[in-house]
Amino acid sequence: MLTITPQAAAEVQRVMAEHANPGFYLRISCHPGPEGLEFGMALDEAQEEDLKAECTGVEVLLDPITRQTLMGVVLDCVEHEGRLRFVFIPPSSCSTGSGCSTGGCGGCGSGH
Q1: pTM of the entire predicted model
Q2: Which residue from 5, 56, 83, 102 lies 20 to 30 Å from 72 (Cα-Cα)?
Q3: Ordered per-residue pLDDT tens for the chain, 112 residues
Q4: Are residues 3 and 55 in contact, defined by beta-carbon separation less than 8 angstroms?
Q5: Are 52 and 61 in contact (CB under 8 A)?
Q6: H-type helices in 20-100, by residue range?
Q7: Given the DSSP bridges, would you call strands 58-62 and 51-55 parallel, antiparallel or unpaired?
Q8: Which residue ranges form the domains of the chain, and what is each CATH number?
Q9: Is 85 helix (H, G, I), strand (E, B) or coil?
Q10: How far is Cα 19 from Cα 86, in angstroms, rounded to an integer?
């Protein structure tokens, strides 16, 4: 399933501490776009059909369709032009070694 790097997890936890209401989780979404898959993130409440999983200490919500699409995807946080940005790295990038550093990172648990 999805992997969140330690740097991305720390930044998500910082944002959640500043902006989220109690009971909110990190929702990750994915849908087809004009140039492939487009990923999104939001702080949201759980819905009945959601899978709740813990990824590197972050409680994540995934709907049934998104959870299948995120197999092998890595969420990272990188600095770009002086700002931290979240990036989703597809499995094809990881297998070719183009910038995917997941050492010490765990994928999401099986949910609860």
Answers
A1: 0.77
A2: 83
A3: 789 999 999 999 999 999 868 889 999 998 888 988 889 999 999 999 999 999 999 999 998 888 888 888 999 999 989 898 999 998 875 544 433 333 333 344 434 3
A4: yes
A5: yes
A6: 64-69, 91-96
A7: antiparallel
A8: 3-96 (2.60.300.12)
A9: strand
A10: 17
Which residues, 6+ apart, have CB-to-CB distance to 11 below 8 Å?
77, 84, 86
CA-to-CA separations, 8 to 3, 32, 65, 86, in angstroms, rounded: 10, 23, 23, 7
- Contact yes or no for 16/24 (Cβ under 8 A): yes
* Cα torsion angle, 54, 59, 63, 65, sign: negative
> Would you state the structure tokens that stand for residue 75, as one six-digit string?
């969420």
